[in-house]
Amino acid sequence: MSRYRVGGRTVDTAATADNVGAALWNPSTSKGIYVEEVHWAKVGATVDNPGLVRISARGTATTTVTPDIDNDDANALAPVSGALLDVAYSAQPTITAPYMHRTNLAAAGGAGFIWTFRDPGIFIPAGEGLAIATPVAVILQDSDVTFVWSE
Amino acid sequence: VAGGFYLVGNRVTAATVVEPLACLWNPSSTLELRVLFLSLIGVGGTPGQEPLLRRSTTRGTPGSTITPDIDNHSIHELAPPSGALLDLADYSVVPTVDASTLMKFLTPQSSIAQGPGKTTWFREPGITIPPSTGLIVDNVGGASIWDISFWWEE
Predict the structure, then answer these.
(1) 3-state class of B26 per DSSP?
(2) Which of residues 71-100 of B touch A (CB under 8 A)?
(3) Which end of chain B is more exposed for a tag (fewer CB within 10 A), N or C?
(4) Count of CB atoms situated within 10 Å of the CB of A127
């Protein structure tokens, strides 16, 4: 197993329930990946309500960060899964509720969280993803996000 | 159940002064749950909230219920074999709550608009919920709104 980490900055979502701010998408047709950590810190100083939820369709990402060999902790291998960090959308992903975790953040830039998942982490099957979305019809503020995973 | 754990979260609105906010209820007659992590983050900005973590021995009648499924399993293999449920206020029939307090939340909801609260990891093997009982977040303040999440294994 190799451990990867990738970060990006999201944009404000629409004030629509279940809109996604960011997702780690696994485009592989055969290989699952295990998310070990999610880091989130908002830029916009307005209250918002991040939630953790699976997605079964990627939607249309307008901004994607593509991890490469430099995102490998061991600097040895680009992600074999081809995992991608999507941080902006023109067409929303398909979420698969119930939400796994919900929280809310104060109206302060820098407010955020680090979620560390118990071994072996949150499994993302091939052709699926794990997202931070807003469960309520309130804008999810632009935020810095980092996913850490193993595969 | 070998492998993985479960996560579920939702928003709860408690309208009355004294009632449970939420309960992770174990309806199984044989399996036990072990709660690993609890997150309770305030939304409403009402001062004076001091939730308590307690056990319950009857389910009562919750205002709503979230039913975790395979998507709530960390390794995405199966829905909770116990049939565990996240029950939310407002209860029309209040559960039977044991008076013993397991934890008193020391960072109560305050006048900050959103965000104050508490997240807690419980040391392994976690807090056991025996069959046909629950783990309650009890509300001893006024009306309030919270985002609550439980992580557990079974």
Answers:
(1) strand
(2) 71-72, 74-76
(3) N
(4) 15
